[in-house]
Amino acid sequence: MEFNNTNPSTTRPGLSSSDSAMLEVLVPGYTLISRFLVSYLHIDPTIYLQQLVLLALLGAAVRYISLYIVDLVKEYFVSTAEIRLDDEVFTYFMYWMSRQPHMKRTNRFVAGVKANGYQSEEEDEDEDDVNPDKSEGEWDEPGSSESADDFDEYWAKVVSRDKYKPLRFTPSQGSHVFWYKNRPLMLQRQKEDGNNRMVLINERLYLSCLGRDASILRDVLNEAQEAYVQRDGNRTIIYRGHRYYSGSSWYWNRCMARSPRPLSTVVLDVEQKQDFIDDIKEYLHPRTRRWYSNRGIPYRRGYLLHGPPGTGKTSLCFAAAGLLGLKLYLLNLNSKALDEDNLSSLFSELPQRCIVLLEDIDTAGITKSRGKTVVTNVKSEDETGDDFEIEEIDKIGAEEPAKADGITLSGLLNVIDGVAASEGRILVMTSNHPDQLDAALLRPGRVDMSIEFRYASSEAIEELFTAIYATMEGDSPQTSASSRRLTNGNAKQPNGRTPSPPNMKRTKSQELNEKAEKEHKDRVASLQARVSALAKQFASIVPAAEFTAAEIQGYLLNHKSTPEAAIKGAETWVQNLREKKKAREEKSA
Ligand SMILES: Nc1ncnc2c1ncn2[C@@H]1O[C@H](COP(=O)(O)OP(=O)(O)OP(=O)(O)O)[C@@H](O)[C@H]1O
User: Fold this and answer.
1) What is the structure's pLDDT at 301?
2) Quick one: which of 230, 280, 581, 584 has the most CB atoms within 10 Å?
3) Which of 210, 232, 254 is the last residue of a domain?
């Protein structure tokens, strides 16, 4: 065959220029390819056009049918669980997955120092506490902090450990098949296209198993949650209001898990402390919920902890959360990016039982009275027509302009107890200047109990001193080791051997144990007596009702292991602090 005409569209009479154009659309580059074939290989592709089109159609049909079959199989023979990034299950599952044997074998993984790649740094740094056994076993070797040499050895270990953050391996994008309870499961990690920020938000996990019975998927997710909860133990989980990027919506980010603070370590009038805890307990009791619901009263409780900075407001809230095993949700109302919608959506995502802590609300710019603009909002948004609000708003009038950014007072009030406000949560607000707060914020229903924190009284000073210098269980490894030994007759002896079984020898070891126990008790009692005598002496030097607990604690911490030195220097410290405070006052006046 010979073709002199290099224009393929004219080689065959049946192929018009519009046909060529269409082919160009269907097969981009068709004109160029066909020119090349005709000129150099002397092959006219239009001859095979029919076959090519048939082949393409066949390919498309096969693809369509196979996709249809896959969809059919997926629908009728596969069960799938979808896990979203903005849900805690994502974190549970990634944590669990990073500990599965599959992650040691797979060749496609995301390597990182965070379990799910999205945890905040704080949570990550907290990882040592997560595994208390490890930190105790590895670092609190007997005698570890008793001498400078021991410290150097311990510190060298810490420094070398800190250089290597534990790596975590989680499944990468795409599909992964792994075995769970002898059944194959498929995990698909998918991102949606878009700009980088959106990709982060739109990430999804799909966990699938064969068969219509999805119980195995529930088992996996329950196990993942269990593993995560086990890891938390009795620690207090802290969430913080957070957003991914400027303009995105807010969510509660799990940022920390801390060992609970014993209530006894918060120095406050015992009655006040107990009233606070009893009130929360009473509120959480199921009968109270019923009582509220039967009377149509919104089931909410609010507290205001007020007093000078460093007097223990946050500490009390944290201790209460630990004591009652409640999660703590922290929110900073100072953020200009936080508006009423975001605040309201954050509140609507709160679990049924939790403590929400709004710290230093007087600094959040919402202390001013509600202005006229705000009044209109309140009326239109709160359809209950709350008489109290309307009366009060009328009284306050339009004194202040509405706030341009961030949360307004009316916005906060709506979220706290508007018609759409969440129920069940405990709201704790702290303030250094309660007198500057709007009366509307403090009215019953929003604040049901106020606790005033004052400068340390003489008793409080004594208590703070005792708390610092009294020996506590677990203060030193020897104490805990010896107490363990005291309480365990079968504990290993110093030579590493386990004591002999019950016989004459065991009776002797029991006797030794009892003697050691008595000696230990005597030692503790005499130490306590000494510390309480010193505490009295300290309290007689430091004036009552002048300094905060934080200031006193800060001073005592400088003499952590030398109570006598603390007493000796107390007078000078008092003088210096007085002068500093005076200078600060003069400067601010
Ligand atoms: N009453 C107290 N009992 C025990 N420790 C206290 C007390 N008050 C303060 N502290 C100690 O002082 C530090 C600061 O306390 P905390 O944050 O609870 O004070 P605060 O009143 O919430 O302060 P701010 O108003 O600045 O938020 C903590 O280390 C805490 O242990």
Assistant:
1) 93
2) 280
3) 232
Residue 265 CA: which ligand 1 atom is closest? 4
Closest CA to 232 of 252, 253, 251, 260: 260
Does residue 318 form part of some domain?
A: yes
Greater pLDDT, 260 or 37:
260
Q: Spell out which residues line ligand 1, taking CB within 6 angstroms.
A: 265-268, 309-315, 359, 430, 432, 453, 549-550, 553
404: nearest Cα among 323, 506, 464, 336: 336
Integer-rounded Cα Rg, in Å, for the chain is 35
CA angle 398, 400, 402 (to 5 degrees): 100
Position 136 in a domain: no
Q: Could you tell which of 236, 263, 311 is best to mutate to test the pocket of ligand 1, judged by most ligand atoms within 8 Å of the CB? A: 311
Do the beta carbons of residue 78 and residue 208 sit within 8 Å?
Answer: yes
Q: Phi and psi at residue 366, in whole multiples of 5°?
A: -115, 15
Q: How many domains does the chain have?
A: 4
In a domain, 138, yes or no: no
Chain mean position to CA 465: 33
**Best residue among 238, 259, 264, 314 to mutate for probing ligand 1, ranked by most atoms within 8 Å of CB:** 314
Query: Does residue 413 share a domain with residue 358?
Result: yes
What's the CA-to-centroid distance between 584 and ligand 1, angstroms? 21
pLDDT, position 325: 94
Task: Report residue 94 as tokens.
Answer: 């990634």
> pLDDT tens for residues 123-182?
444 444 444 334 434 444 444 445 566 888 888 888 988 888 888 888 999 999 999 999
State mean pLDDT over 338-346.
88
The CA distance from 555 to 541, in Å, is 13
Q: What is the pLDDT of residue 570?
A: 95
**The tokens of 34 are what?**
């066909």
Closest Cα to atom 4, ligand 1: which residue?
Answer: 266
Q: Are residues 218 and 252 in the same domain?
A: no
Residue 417's pLDDT is what? 81
User: In this predicted structure, what is the pLDDT of residue 303?
Assistant: 96
How long, in residues, is the chain? 589
pLDDT exceeds cutoff 50 at 237: yes
Q: How far apart are CA 263 and CA 254, in angstroms?
A: 23
Q: Is 211 helix (H, G, I), strand (E, B) or coil?
A: coil
Complex ipTM above 0.90? Answer: yes
What is the CB neighbour count within 10 angstroms for residue 546? 15
